[in-house]
Amino acid sequence: MTNTSKPVIGVSRCLLGDAVRYDGAAKPCRIVIEQLGQQFELVAVCPEVEAGLPVPRPPVQLTGPAGRPRMTGRDDPQLDVTESLQAFCERRIPQLAGLSGFVFKSRSPSCALGSAPLYVDGKCVSPELDGLFAAALRRRYPQLPVIDECGLEQPAMRAAFIRAVQGGER
After folding, report:
1. Cis peptide before 56 (omega within 30 of 0)
2. What one-character-per-residue DSSP string does 19-78 give?
3. Is 18 exposed, middle or buried (0-12, 13-18, 19+ CB in 10 A)?
4. What pairs with residue 148 in β-bridges?
5. 168, 159 in Cβ contact below 8 A?
6. Whole-prediction pTM
7. N or C: which end of the chain has fewer CB within 10 A?
8. Residue 2 located in a structural domain
9. Cβ–Cβ under 8 Å, residues 62 and 116
10. Domain that holds residue 30
11. How far is CA 142 from CA 53, 82, 106, 115, 145, in A?
């Protein structure tokens, strides 16, 4: 992926301070920027922007059955960006084969690790799904160490992730 001697990890782009979220905001994560940025080569990924969605954009959420969720508009249920996200995953995930780990944005319909809410008929039926991109990346690379920014805030989880990325716990 790069010509650095540091391990390379993917990071949800908004955690690096880039204003790519649906509302045009960023969610910079100090631990990612200051600590992981010193130890690892960081590769920014924003599935929604890379799938062609604009900034700002209408908010989306996961809807439908848990086994096959769709990414649809929160305010406009007719908006369905599922196929765009799936096409992005098919195109981009093979390019990430050299990663040693990934840091995801929690509660994101594309990047959450077990924290994306799932809605059916306007009601949250599960707060514990993976986002579409996170799920696809984990299916393709099941041994890849992954964490979200909430996990990084827990010293033991952060240390375990760093050891795994460095090859100590695969």
Report:
1. yes
2. --STTS-----HIIIIIIHHHSEEEEE-HHHHTT--SS---EEEES-TTS-EEEESS-TT
3. middle
4. 104
5. no
6. 0.94
7. C
8. no
9. yes
10. 8-165
11. 27, 22, 19, 18, 8
Closest CA to 32 of 8, 13, 10, 15: 15
* pLDDT number for residue 167: 87
What do you get for the CA distance between the two ends of the chain, in Å?
Answer: 20
Spatial neighbors of 51 by CB under 8 A, at least 6 apart, are 81, 84, 85, 87, 88
pLDDT 10s digits, 103-114? 999 999 999 999
Low-confidence ranges of the chain (pLDDT < 70): 1-4, 168-170
Q: How many domains does the chain have?
A: 1
Rounded Cα distance, 101 and 8, in Å: 7
Give a yes or no: residue 40 inside a domain: yes
Q: Distance (Å, rounded) from C-alpha 154 to C-alpha 148?
A: 10
DSSP string over 76-128: -TT-B-HHHHHHHHHHHGGGGTT-SEEEEPTT-TTT-SS-EEEEETTEEEEEE
Closest CA to 24 of 68, 71, 58, 65: 58
**Domain-located, residue 30:** yes
